[in-house]
User: What shape does this take?
Amino acid sequence: MLIISVQNNIKENIELLRQLSHDEYLFHNEIIGNASIGEHMRHIIELLGAVVKNYDNGIISYDKRARDINIQTNKKEAIKVLERFQFQLDKPNKTLYLEHHCSSSTKIIQTNYFRELLYNLEHSIHHQALIKVALHRLPHIKVPDSFGVAPSTLEYRLQCAL
Assistant: This one.
């Protein structure tokens, strides 16, 4: 179920990107800290990529990610990478190690694949919520009501509606 949830989140991001023009993708919006949707999408993609690309070697570092400006400035490239990740996610859970650089020292923390997928899902949803704020100036862009909303919040809303 977790892998399907991450794949669905990726689909939401792809559907958003397909609706945006090049200029809308690059526009620096003051309401989201003068960042662009492209910058937020690059950040989502690179963190997920740190897990997907390092599954086999077992060591993840979110700090040492690529920071690929091409993803940030070229929505077609962002879509291509997201589509590729969708098909690379379906792997068994296993122990991984998270390398974290704190000040001048490096810490290694034991984790696992599913935990890091869950982290990336929550991280993407958080950035989707910021992107959703930027979309208020783009009323022609349609995203589902669930875009940028945590699954637990969606469940809670369903319970309240009963």
Observations:
- Residues 113-134 form the longest helix (22 residues).
